[in-house]
């Protein structure tokens, strides 16, 4: 249980059996009333945000979350399949619930899957992934300085901005946090 | 002894801005070294410089500022006035200085407003026998049988009873257990009172004060303020009508149905605030400042009450701007018998809640017994207003410490 004095942004709590992340919390005290903490809680699966106010001293349940390293296998019918690398159990996560994360998933990529009472609710990607350029305009030689970029498509279908000197078929290191090109890699 | 390491500044000092205008001069300021660039700054200016001798980041120095042919600036004949031997304990204070200046302008404008309107500025004690009895306020102990005030209200009313008709205090108030973006354990509380006047006069003061402070902050707030009541504000946001939900259990069911957590220990007021804080407060005054009138009588504190067709209300208003409570005004209770009853009820509530029970303020009660003229008054969070006017979202941003 978390008391109101432990409330902070990012806290993972459980309400009516559902996992929420605290996205806002503020100490408030009406002129003639008790102290409260006003919070906004975001459902960790469907993203719905609710307002909840707690009286000082009240408690909220901790969300029972566990994190497991898993390998991405494949997509079928809007479901992404992952395999737990320690017990080879498979789990599925709805593609829609992961926002723009699936665009970096390639076969055998190791990710951390967050489970709430055994139900997968989100994934954590590695900071960098290596992907092949499947489509882009031919390179412009010698242009290594200018800030000009061009559009390219990677093997996972992700659309990214690339420097002018990149060619189709090259392998690139991409930062999944920003979606930006980092460098060329040898394969 | 340390005259060599910490020499005094001698001679005529030129600010950096003046030296730039006059193509050189004896300047004094602080050295900054970031990412290969060396700067010198004082309150007037920050410029990139080259140095003719090596000094450290953070050192206070003096020297002669010269402009080279290529337009760069060079500091010559450098003397270290105060070396920086460690990092500052207040790393964010330098960047706050412009905001502290703006805040000071706003507070000064507020003071001038009261002086120009015939208010007597008084100073009352900060260390008292009774720091106020409102159930939810915690005072800091200040020695044997003494506490720091949570508001200057009780003493100011003694000044009213003595015959001063318009009074104001720029008081420092202290409240334990209060910390958040809009709460600090000690803060500037501006309280003013008008004898023989009602809440309309206090509303007019608020409008004029907000406009005055806004001008001091370089902004223009001449919007008409809005006016609503607690009942209307709650009903329009939630559909809950406190006239109908006057029974505690009815209110609990209604707000639980809106998804709020409730507890069997909640009083009617607690339940009310759960909905009010989550659903109403953040929306108040977001377009224009709003006066919220007629609080439930259970939240009257030191205000008169009045009977409306649907129930008893406190003659009290709060001013909200951008969802932040700025001020709380009372049509002041001056009936000593009713005042004593409320104080005793507050003391009983404190005892029940396990909170410290402060003694009755006998001198305040005696002042009412001796006769206090009918009056209205308000406690106004001038720092909150200043922070909002300066585009900040927390009091810390406009406080030095």
- CATH architecture classification of the largest domain in chain B: 2-Layer Sandwich
Structural class by sheet pairing and helices of chain A: mainly beta
Which sheet architecture does the biggest sheet of chain B show? 9 strands, mixed
Number of helices of chain B: 10
Unreliable spans of chain A are none
Determine the oligomeric state from the structure: heterodimer
Radius of gyration of chain A: 22 Å
- Overall tally of domains of chain B: 2
Largest sheet of chain A: 6 strands, antiparallel
Distance between the terminal alpha carbons of chain B, to the nearest Å? 32 Å
Helix/strand order of chain A, N-terminal first: EEEEEEEEEEEEEEEE
Shape of chain B: elongated
Strand count of chain B:
16
SSE inventory with pairings:
The complex is a heterodimer of chains A (187) and B (401).
Chain A: E1 2-3, E2 12-15, E3 18-28, E4 36-43, E5 49-55, E6 59-62, E7 65-76, E8 79-84, E9 90-94, E10 110-116, E11 119-124, E12 128-136, E13 149-154, E14 159-163, E15 171-175, E16 180-185
Antiparallel strand pairs in A: 1-6, 2-3, 2-6, 3-4, 4-5, 7-8, 7-10, 8-9, 10-11, 12-13, 12-15, 13-14, 15-16
Chain B: H1 16-21, E1 25-34, E2 37-42, E3 45-51, E4 60-67, E5 73-82, H2 93-116, E6 120-121, E7 127-128, E8 147-148, H3 153-161, E9 166-174, E10 186-195, H4 199-216, E11 226-229, H5 230-238, H6 248-257, H7 268-280, E12 290-296, E13 305-308, E14 311-321, E15 324-331, H8 336-352, H9 362-370, E16 375-380, H10 382-389
Parallel strand pairs in B: 3-5, 6-9, 11-12
Antiparallel strand pairs in B: 1-2, 1-4, 2-3, 4-5, 7-8, 9-10, 10-16, 12-14, 13-14, 14-15, 15-16
